[in-house]
Specification:
Strand order of the largest sheet: 1-2-4-3
Helix content: 40-55%
CATH architecture: 2-Layer Sandwich
Order of helices and strands: HEEEHHEH
Number of strands: 4
Structural class: alpha+beta
Largest sheet: 4 strands, mixed
Radius of gyration: 15 Å
Length: 136
Amino acid sequence: MNRNTLGSNERLKSEKSITALFEAGKILSVFPIRLIYKPHPTSEKFPVKVGFAVPKKNFKHAVDRNLLKRRMREAYRLNKTILFGEDQNAFPGIDIMLIYQGNKPEEFVKISECIKELLKKLSIRIPAAKDHANRQ
RNA sequence: ACAGCAGGUCGUUCUAUCGCUCCUCGUUUUGCGGGGGGAGGAAAGUCCGGGCAACGCAGAGCACCGUACUGCCGAAAGCGCAGAUAUCCGUGAGGGUAUAGUACUGGAACAGAAAAUAAAAAGUUCGCUUGGGUGUUUAUCCUCCUUCGCUUAAGCCUUGGAGGGUGAUAAGGGUGAAAAGGCAGGGUAAGAGCCUACCGGUGUGGAUGGCGACAUCCAUAGCCGUUCAGCUUGCGGGUUGCAAGACCAAAUAUACCGGGAAACGGGGGUUGCUCGCCCUCACCUUGCUGUCUGAAGCUUUGGCGAAGGACAGCUUUAAUCCCGGAGGGUAGGUCGCUUAGAUAAAUGAUAGAAGUGUUCUUCGGAACAUACAGAACCUGGCUUACAGACCGGCUGCCAUA
RNA sequence: GGGCUAUUAACUCAGUGGUUUAGAGUGCUACCUUGACAGGGUAGAAGUCACAGGUUCGAAUCCAGUAUAGCCCA
């Protein structure tokens, strides 16, 4: 049974990893959300690490930025099994950053749909990467 | 009741499911379970303060910055409360703004005669005297017209006027943001605080009230100027800030460049400067010269190009040592840090119900909306944003009911 | 989070220590010069001095507020 938790262990926190992610990551985009990911092999129990960002340029007030980050985090928490199924320990390590690109705040339903679509796209790509690694 | 004035308080609530973060207990081990805590009046802007931390710390003077009516509160503040004076807005309840001192120095565009010393362009006046002359230093009046009288006439004399010259004047007019007390009488050729009375204001002395700023009254003096800045005086201020700072861990290479190592000298510390003092031979600041760079753009591809910026030399070389730059490495954790306490940063999401407001209504209800806004060391003020609700005061002219 | 700057013509910058005219270079427009360009010369246009307040007779300038852009820190 799955509790759909999202503790701090599943959060992307290392500044080093984040810098590497922005320099060498690959981009998927479903407006108004952009997803940046980079495979990052690790032996930790929670190999999938995710971060959320809303640019200050588009949203001047901290209230709006917090609201959008909370909605994105909630949408990811409820739908993350789309990416790696029930057992994420069998999954190779990956770093993900979700960035809100629009300049108007959207409702939770719209954000949830976007995140579902993004995670589906990502899950199609990742096994390919895994196979590529196995061939080497 | 309506319209308004100032002040104060509040600024959504409940249920279910799924989550986040901190503390604690138990089990135990990358966790799970129980219990408890988890945004604001402005958390915002960072405009003033205080705590705290690092640097620094014999002393004196100067500079610089801030501030400036009075009393009280306060750790302190450019804060608050209560008041004083002046001025503006409002019918009013009330609200806004300003406030040390003026000995000295400078300024007040344009316009205007003049902008605070002085002078006087137009205007006003031009008197006394038969005349000479005086007023007034030179000069001692000149020209024209009119009129009474005398005379043949020239001319003499008288009245009035115009222009010029000379002297007096700053009242009135006009200019301006601002024109040097107001009004009346006297005075004068015309005028003027030139003189006088009253009023206003200033200084000095006194009385009363008030803790005080100040207010009221009396006497007296001279006859009275605004504003801005410098300046002076009192008071306060070391600088930088929790990304301060302390400890631990991890990692790497010192390659290269520059400067210094004589000690009559140079430099540094002393919170910015000087003296004095101390220390040191690391460097800092300024100036000059030179080189490079330099946006938009132009170009015949050579260059041109404002402001600005950077570097070097003025101060020997090598070894060695020291210092600085540069390069390389690490960029993690704990404390600081909090009865909210995170560190890519929690305080939430979904569904339903209630409350409030607006609109529609078939009076059953329905739809929409529910402000400003999110802690990052703590804290006192200020400022700015804010749907609405409540509380008790006060005011009302044009027409309040 | 904290500490600081700036905003003036299409672009890059002056300016003012309060009033007279908001200027310079480049670019733009027109004309002259040339057989024609470039260059040169002459003339001209172009500004809510970021916004909305206050002080003042008068504000690009002084005062406080708002907005936008940018810089620094371990």
